[in-house]
Predict the 3D structure of the following.
Amino acid sequence: MIDQKAIDFFTTEVILAKVNAEVDSLLAQEFHISGYPTSVLVGEDGEEIDRIVGYLEVDDFLKTIVDYQNGIGTLDDLLARAELEPDRELYLEIAEKYKYRGGSDEARNWYQKVIDAGEPTDSLSGEGRMSLADMLRRAKEYEQALEAYGSIMKDFSGEMIAQDAEIWRAIAYRQMGDTTQAINAFQEYIEHYPESEDVEYATKQIDKLKGVEPGT
Amino acid sequence: MTHSGQIPILLAIMLLIVACGAEKQSSIPSAPYFANYAEARTVADSTGQAVLVNFYTDW
């Protein structure tokens, strides 16, 4: 699909480079790219202004870039706003931005602020706690990640976030190489959430972990 | 930080020619682009513009 707005924008306003991250993996590494597509706006000084992770409609995409160029919605902008007023949703946004840039310590600090500024079992804390648990798992700090997922399952029992935590707990066991615990955790997930769309995934994981060939 | 300078006509034509290449998976529809950051950077350095680097994979 040809979009004239995008053509005009990238002809006159901003220069566009499309980089296959599999081919230019060093550049992707340099920019701490962890998901695709990711679009990084780089200023004339070569420094990152900000980035867009994932897909946006063309109009939203172009508006976000223009906003970034005007210093709106950038990490620096959010940090300045957070100085002026305590806003947990803003803290969460800041944490996400740091996470996508590869700033793990800063991201963890801001997720923790989200939790500390509210009740440990409110929905924003739930998001913050889940993100922290995921960061621990990705950092291969499995014991801590399992503890975090376990406490989310307990504190948010009956809520969607507890369901998510339970499947990720099973995945964490699998990733740390504890096959027995992983099989048990996937089985428990299926028992607890038989209607979940992830039951098929969990069943396949159990088969794989048991060495069962597909279709047998 | 904001750049509103116009790209010279020849460069604009060159970018449009590049845009005729196959469209890759990205969040950006067909638009003129460089397939190499270093080249885009070189042009940006001469025009004072920002560069948007769109990372994608063929997965």
